[in-house]
Amino acid sequence: MTLYGEERPPADDRPTVQVAAVNWPVEEPVRPAPVPPSGGEPPRSRRFRLLLASGVATAVLGSVGAVAVWAYAGDVPRGTTVLGTELGGRSRTDAARELRAQLDRRAAELTAPIQVRVGERTAEINPADVGLTVDVDATVAAAAAANAHAVDRLVGSREVQPVVSVDVPKLEAALEKLVGAQGRKMTMPAITFSGTTPKVRYPKPSLAVDPEHSAQVVKDGWLGGQPVTVPLVENHPATSADDVDRMVAELAKPAVAAPVKLTTDRGSVSIPPQAIAKGLRFKADKTGKLTPSVDVKQLRAALGNKLDTVEVAAKDARMTISGGKPKVIDGRAGQQVDTSDLGRDLLAVLPQGEGRTVSAKLKPVEPKLTAEKLAGLGIKEKVSSFTTNFTGGLSSPRSQNIVTIANDVKGTVVLPGATFSLNGHTGERGYAQGYRDAPVILDGKLVPGVGGGTSQFTTTLFNASYYAGLQDVEHKPHSYYFSRYPAVIESTIFWPNLDFKFRNNTEYGVLIDTSYTANSVTVTMWSTKIWDSVKTEYGPRRNITSPRTVYLEPGPRCIPANGSQGFTQDAFRVIKKDGKVVKREKFTWTYDAEPRFICAKEPSS
After folding, report:
1. Is 306 helix (H, G, I), strand (E, B) or coil?
2. Which parts of 126-204 are beta strand (E)?
3. What is the number of alpha carbons within 13 Å of residue 28 lying toward its C-beta?
4. Spatial distance between the Cα atoms of 161 and 157, rounded to a whole number of angstroms
């Protein structure tokens, strides 16, 4: 006999048993009885047997149905217990309610700290701190998943283990704290170069707890109310010490044994072993697997200007002032070694002693700033200009330094949102860049120094950006006040420690144009004018100090000075738009009194 169960809609929450068919075996087929005479009855024995069979069948069906209804009552099979609580014969909702009640009754037991031992250290962990809980819904679902066989449901019984949840990362953190100095991190294998000599770091296994295994051990111990021992497990890197030695012998040493020839359509370049060592990398992943690769960016940097013989640099579009208006001059595309396959091709030939040649194609490189982009930056009108004067004519070293830095900055375009750095733009200003010795302030006195005079250009540039309303990022006024500069709103510069920076805080590009005469230098900013006016209002000078007299050893490095007063003063940048003040920025500086330097021996009193 086979029984098929079908659940009713959730409103009833009880299964219904349906009997599909019952077949009873008989010893012989039933033959038709002789037709009795009219008005007669069948023989008594035949009628008796039919009634008996019918009664027996009805009784059996009735008892089977009753047992089946009992066995299949509820979602959870009869005889199913969880934590000693009978859930059998209940709906899932009732079973969950009963299980939660049981957990409430055992709350003191289940919230008690667990004693955990790792290695030689023991500590208590609060279940709530690591998220230890019984997942009631998952447990009831497991309990409801009874054996489908009718016999099991009729006579079986079983204890279902609760489904326990734990926050594995929190548990891992708690266990790692308990591990402490007993554990150790995995030492990853590495191969690096000192010059062209390979240096190795051999791998070592980690000693730590295994998160997933530890979680199961702690869950089991929590339910059992027993102390837990979590083992420390060694985890070995995927690359062994023998693997490292093999990589050194088969790749690292041969790689730097000789140059590699790089051929292109425009000629060839020799990649020296030193550059190969800079570009060859051996990187370990989180499993400790060491993989070689070529860092093409590092390789290019190590080659320096060697690639200039086969590459053509792209040239940005630029802007110049012609006829009193900005004019765009188109740039040009360049050609650069296509490095997409270079790393792979180099790795293929580096182990070889001969045939160390790779080829590469040249790909076109567009300029970063195209004429179309430059024309769309809104650079159309003069927004500010500032001039400072100098003496000595253009032939003096100081004037030549001013001219050199002015020509370097001329034509620079600062994009919207970009920050301009004067040190970053010019780089180091030394003899190789065309700068000469001229007076600079060092340790509070004027001495000859390369690049003297560039502070005057810096002050001129600072004021041009200041009156354009651009954002001041970094500047530092001089220690002493010089009358050729506006007080407070001026700036010195010194490589590499003192810089001048401003940010283009507008939506338009800014063109820096420079010019000079025999006794002056001018910086002009071109863009789209967004302010009605930018002016300076000064507060009175205060805290006036007088200069002292200092006698210096006479000689070629001694530069006399007349001295100047020291003072503190405020300057306010006032920016107007639509006839209203929209910004008022305060700048304050304190000048030291510049001593009166005399190049002579101090007279005796």
Report:
1. helix
2. 133-134, 158-159, 164-165, 190-194, 197-201
3. 4
4. 13
Helices and strands, counts by H and E, the chain: 16, 38
| Locus of tokens 């548990």 | 171
Report pLDDT for 444: 62
Query: Is the Cβ–Cβ distance between 288 and 236 less than 8 Å?
Result: yes
Q: In DSSP terms, which residues pair with 382 in a beta bridge?
A: 526
Pairwise CA distance, residues 127 & 170, whole Å: 11
Are 554 and 602 contacting, i.e. CB atoms less than 8 angstroms apart?
A: no
- State the pTM of this model: 0.58
pLDDT digits (tens, 9 = 90+) for 464-487: 999 999 999 999 999 989 888 999
Query: At residue 91, what is the residue type?
Result: S
| Measured CA distances, 583 to 474, 534, 576 (Å) | 19, 9, 7
290 close to 252: Cβ distance less than 8 angstroms: no
pLDDT band at 5 (very low <50, low <70, confident <90, very high): very low
Which residue ranges make up each domain of the chain? Answer: 3-26+44-71, 243-374, 381-599
Answer yes or no: are the C-beta atoms of 208 and 233 closer than 8 Å: yes
Q: CA–CA separation, 109 vs 131, rounded Å? A: 15
Pick from 591, 484, 587: nearest CA to 546: 591
Report whether 406 contacts 434 (CB < 8 A). Answer: no
CATH class of 243-374: alpha beta
Confidence (pLDDT) at 10: 42
User: CA 470, CA 523: separation in Å to the nearest integer?
Assistant: 14
Q: Pull the structure tokens for residue 120.
A: 């030689």
Q: Tell me: pLDDT of 63 over 90.
A: no
139, 327, 514 from 323: Cα distances, Å: 86, 9, 15
